[in-house]
Amino acid sequence: MNKKDKEKIVTFWNVGSLEEAKYDRVSTRKEERKAVNAFDASVVNSLITDHILKHKRNITKKDRVLDFGCGVGRILKGFHKFESQVYGTDISENMLSFCKEELGSFKVNLKKCNVGSVPFGDDFFDIIYSFHVLQHIATKKLLINTLREIYRTQKPGGIAVLHFIRKVSESDKEFGGFAGFRPSRDTAVKICKKIGYELIDIDAVEGGAFILHLRK
Whose CA is closest to 48, among 84, 72, 75, 81? Predict the structure, then answer.
């Protein structure tokens, strides 16, 4: 991906208000009820319990958890009840500012990243999760580089929980919605295994999407 396209993506996500961040970037205005539901505590808690912590129930204050592409902290907010060390990263400085606003008194380590990178050291995180993010990565090469970065920052034995959305049609690739390279389930598994991950489990979710549970 060239520099111009990367700047275009960052500009798209650098929204001007928390309301715009929540709704215009979560879903369209005509689906506002769905967008609101996505922030409900019951929805977030179910996501954490049923998927993110599905294969690591005993999370402790020593565990480091990363939300890759955290946005305004919709999922991060649900980790307030755990003692773990929680981190979030996003390409948008504005999103991170609104994330702080949304999280209130809940302290999370937030850090801006560049497109396709994870701004932390090697073998750092026990859990890395990413939801509704990877489908926006424009090319296969950039997706592979991003997954390598996630793997690099994962502790040996650590778990990654990665959400993939299938491609709807050949027209589903315009920069307006940033629908990027969307691998099939078999291709995503193949890429992750080649990087070095062990496949633990696959969850099928709404609309043909899937979640890979991986161990380094």
Answer: 75
